[in-house]
């Protein structure tokens, strides 16, 4: 484990001032980078800790914001913002591109070596960046088996890994099948991990506010999904430099 530094970054997107969390590995050299998207509630300490963990592995990591610095713990408020967003690929891409611009302009980032990893709404944004033709080394998603506009998935130029709980009522088997059929038809290098017995947002520790139905934490699968994300990055975006440089 190496020493890291962190800071908040403000940037405009979707008519809001977003407040992201940037985590930098030790050293001064350029590193591969990861854009990290949160669940629909928005950026929280869960994603900040994940960004920090990625920095400890040697990546520049930006956990991006969805709601202008707000965390939407009220399910109705969250759905009222996220459902129209999820129905609008251009808005999702706008939020993703704004965060990606911040990550690319960070002096420690190697702009040619970036992956996007996201959970829920953040994962849908990662997929839309790929469908929009952004040059990414990998896309990893959990709880984000979203489908896109016809033909655009063929613009994804990197491996896609997706994870979902077998008992997730928000991403049921029909949604899984539609997602995998789209990936296959587009010729994408895709993988799907189905975590047995897990609900939606199984990766997210329990929260002290109401949630939408079908959400539940599964600590064992949460650890497995994180290892799968790290393995995806190790395969597609390896940190090859000496971390002590």
Short overview:
This protein has 245 residues and is an alpha/beta fold. 34% of the residues lie in helices and 23% in strands.
SSE topology sketch:
Elements lengths: L4 E9 L2 E9 L6 E7 L7 H12 L3 E4 L11 H12 L2 H17 L3 E11 L1 H11 L7 E4 L17 E6 L7 H13 L4 E6 L23 H18 L9
Parallel strand pairs: 3-4, 3-5, 5-6, 6-7, 7-8
Antiparallel strand pairs: 1-2, 2-4
What does this protein structure show overall?
It contains six helices and eight strands, in the order βββαβααβαββαβα. Helix content is 34%, strand content 23%. It has one domain: Rossmann fold, CATH 3.40.50. The mean pLDDT is 96. Strand 1 and strand 2 form a beta hairpin. Helix 3 crosses helix 4. By secondary structure, the chain is of the alpha/beta class.
Write the H/E string, N to C. EEEHEHHEHEEHEH
Determine the N-to-C terminus distance.
Answer: 14 Å
The rough form would be described as globular
Kindly state the percentage of residues in helix: 25-40%
Mean pLDDT: 96
- Specify the CATH architecture: 3-Layer(aba) Sandwich
The CATH superfamily is Alpha/Beta hydrolase fold, catalytic domain
The Cα radius of gyration reads 17 Å
Largest sheet: 8 strands, mixed
- Helix- and strand-based class? alpha/beta
CATH fold title: Rossmann fold
Specify the number of helices. Answer: 6
* Count of domain modules: 1
Provide the β-strand percentage band.
Answer: 15-25%
Low-pLDDT stretches are none
- Oligomer category: single chain
Number of strands: 8
Strand order of the largest sheet: 1-2-4-3-5-6-7-8
The CATH class label is Alpha Beta
């Amino acid at each position: 484990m190496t020493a890291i530094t962190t800071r908040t970054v403000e940037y405009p997107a979707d008519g809001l001032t977003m407040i992201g969390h940037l985590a930098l590995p030790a050293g001064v050299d350029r590193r591969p980078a990861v854009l990290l998207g949160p669940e629909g509630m928005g950026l929280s300490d869960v994603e900040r800790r994940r960004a920090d963990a990625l920095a400890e592995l040697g990546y520049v990591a930006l956990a991006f914001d969805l709601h202008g610095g707000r965390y939407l713990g009220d399910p109705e408020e969250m759905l009222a913002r996220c459902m129209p967003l999820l129905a609008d690929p251009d808005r999702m891409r706008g939020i993703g591109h704004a965060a990606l611009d911040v990550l690319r302009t960070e002096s420690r980032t190697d702009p040619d070596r970036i992956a996007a990893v996201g959970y829920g709404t953040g994962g849908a944004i990662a997929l839309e960046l790929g469908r929009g033709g952004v040059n990414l080394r990998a896309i990893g998603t959990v709880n984000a088996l979203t489908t896109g506009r016809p033909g655009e998935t063929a613009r994804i130029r990197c491996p896609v890994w997706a994870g979902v709980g077998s008992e997730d009522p928000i991403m049921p088997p029909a949604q899984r099948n539609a997602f995998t059929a789209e990936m296959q038809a587009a010729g994408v290098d895709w993988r799907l991990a189905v975590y047995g017995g897990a609900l939606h947002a199984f990766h997210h520790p329990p929260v002290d506010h109401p949630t939408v139905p079908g959400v539940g934490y599964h600590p064992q699968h949460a650890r497995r999904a994180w290892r799968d994300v790290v393995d995806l990055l190790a395969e597609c975006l390896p940190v090859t430099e000496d971390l002590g440089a």
